[in-house]
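Expect chain and fold; see below:
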Amino acid sequence: MHVTVLETLRATTSTADWFYVSPAANFGAHGLGERSGVFRVGGDVLLTDAQGESNIGGADFAIAFVDEIDRPTHHRERLSVAY
């Protein structure tokens, strides 16, 4: 379902300024991560660490989302977030 939303956003001819945030592979109630305020923001690819892990906690995911609203740097594109 989410991929359909992203595809629809990418295909729109609207001039709306949108962004789409993709969390790390390991995200959710089962995911690792205490709020740290320190995370990486990437583009249209999954972010992993040196061990190949891809994690983000809910609080830091939310911070990344709100940061993009407050200080937009990604216009009409997807961004990814991870530790």
